[in-house]
Amino acid sequence: MGLQSCVNINKEWDIVGARQMGRDIAREIGFGTVDQARIATAISELARNIYLYAETGQICFEVIDNINQKGISMIAIDSGPGIRDISQVMEDGFSTSGGLGAGLPGVKRLMDDFDIKSEEGKGTEIRALKWVR
Amino acid sequence: MDGKFKKIVIDNSDTIVHMWLDEVDSLKDGNYTSSISDELFENTNREFVNVIFSSIQKQGASISLEEFSEKLINLGWPLSYITDGLQVFRRVTVDYILSQSDQVDSTYISNVLKSVDMWVEPIIRQLVNEYSGSWEHIVSLQRVALQELSAPLIPVMDSITVMPLIGTIDTERAKLIMENLLEGVIRHNAEVVLIDITGVPVVDTMVAHHIIQAAEAVRLIGSTCILVGIRPEIAQTIVNLGIDLGKFPTKSSLRKGFTAALEITNRKVVDLDGKEESIGRMLDSLNGE
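The joint structure predicted for all components is written out below.
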């Protein structure tokens, strides 16, 4: 496990900050441009969800450096309203904000590993991981 | 009490200035001001300490303080120079007053601290306000400048307009894009609008959603919208996200989009034998590089 760096999400422009940081880390570890774009997009989705639904939260990045593979792990944490039905938000096209409803299922497809924990009224924690190929 | 301390400080200003200058000079090495020439540093220090003393004498804000802060801001010196300097001044002055007094007990010390704080605080407050005021001013100017750049619409030829988008799209900008797009399509009587996203770093669902809405709105007023400048990595992320951009034509480059737009408006680029490429060159220049 490498060092962790976090970005606080309080306003819309923090999304850009989080994205930038994630992209920089991804570039450093050795991701190609396509994967960099995937990672940046996934961060953008997660950060925007925090901004839209929880208003404030945090995105943390961790570099994972094992013997056989390297990767980036990102954790989006908020203490917002939480998600009642996780299987519903993982469906394509479901949105409560009038968006496209492709965010979370999209992130799952963009990344290699995806884990979501949420409790109504307490908050949400999403972990997503991408390995360097 | 306060008057007495003030008298000590003003009567012995030379000594205190000396002590202060020594201390501040020692801060210089390996610090924020290491790139500043010694001469300028010394002059500024002297000016700074004069400003402090004149402000103590006059009790509160003075014009020289304002001028001084303006000068520092213009020189681009860090705010920490001022806060450090005043911190040192506070320390030196308290030390000096205490060393000049015969009987020192805790109430005396707290009185000294209170008085010195009362002299230094208005100076800190005003200088910090001036600094943050100038930053806020810069930020608001840049915001205006950004807004002016945010959604330009270029009529390239009859009934074809281009909207090149560069940089991050946030909610506010998305609104501007929509408004400018619709207004421009009507004003220029455009049949085809090309939205160029070559310069947009990330296309997430929000950006895609806004583009889809804009294209749909353009369709409603009877024009066609072509999305151009989709880089390969963006195309892959859009597919991964599962976003359906199938409702309107998309092209990889502005050049191809422009050719398609010409076709829609029943025109084409024709080579004038030999010295053709005037339109081709124009297309190239439109293409960015």
